[in-house]
Amino acid sequence: MNQVKSILKDFYDIEINVVSPQQGGWASLAYKVSNKNQSYFLKVYEKSRASTPKLTALIDQYVPILVWLIKNSNLKGKISVPMMTSERKYKCEDEYGIYLLYEYIEGETIGDRDLTENQVYQLSKIITELHSYSDNIPIGTDAFIEDFEVPFLPMLRQTLQKGRNDFPSEVWELIHSYILQLNDLIYTLEEHSQNLKNSKLRMALCHTDLHNWNLMQSGQELILIDWEGLKLAPPEADLMFLDDKPYFNEFLRIYRKTHQNFSINPEAMTFYKGKRRLEDIWEFMEQLLYDKQGEQERVITMNYLQEELNEINKW
Ligand SMILES: Nc1ncnc2c1ncn2[C@@H]1O[C@H](COP(=O)(O)OP(=O)(O)OP(=O)(O)O)[C@@H](O)[C@H]1O
Ligand SMILES: [Mg+2]
To answer: Which residues form the Aminoglycoside phosphotransferase domain (predicted)?
Structure first.
């Protein structure tokens, strides 16, 4: 706790007296930190975690875009507000972690609940606005232009080529009957990747992780948070999260008022859905094969993997 206090003092010149741990995600820790005037949300990426370098590599590229959007677009009040350090940096670090500070959002995460009609309307407006920006903004976007690469595919393919004896037996039991389907999916994903690389699609700023755990209701406002995935990508990178929702037609009606003549590119949609599915499967497999896990954690990962594998049957 004292360590959190000194981070705030040393890097942000903010004195705080209350620190309360928050429910973090799988990859980071989080704290609500407050003094009598204000509260903040501190995200901590521990250097001991393997995922940290990848997740923090682009902070200095995407946070300035958030700041720009807050100043220059209608997204002010509808997206998370990052705080800069006293040296006007977007993140800070010590030997233990990498830290990002945000204004604290008083409100509730939507999570498992369905969106209300009003929330659907607000989400539609947020995405419509976000997608009206591309590389025409005065901040560099080169670092996160979609290149349709799927970097984990070679590793996944190699792993699937191994046989029964190379897997812990319970993992083999789980995956072996899906290997053909997985290889099919890898193959089609590579084909789509190649085609999309060669096509000239309209690119826009995309959030790329649009689910209800990244939406908060604060007073009258719906707020979109967790911008680590910000990309310059075809709109399908976001629409893939919405097209199976009951409100998708309503979303499109609002979206098309601004993005007239927009039509979905089915190949981009299929690419993003397949990629997400395989990404999740690979992540669970990696945990089971390479991470040190407790027995209970392992059972949970096995269940998640089973669920994901069941889903590929539906493709
Ligand atoms: N600025 C904020 N103020 C208050 N609560 C927040 C704020 N940002 C995030 N939260 C809460 O913390 C949860 C996790 O935050 P966020 O989505 O940014 O990270 P994450 O999904 O844990 O990311 P990762 O997967 O990188 O660990 C959110 O679902 C939300 O409930
Ligand atoms: Mg999140």
So the answer is: 21-242
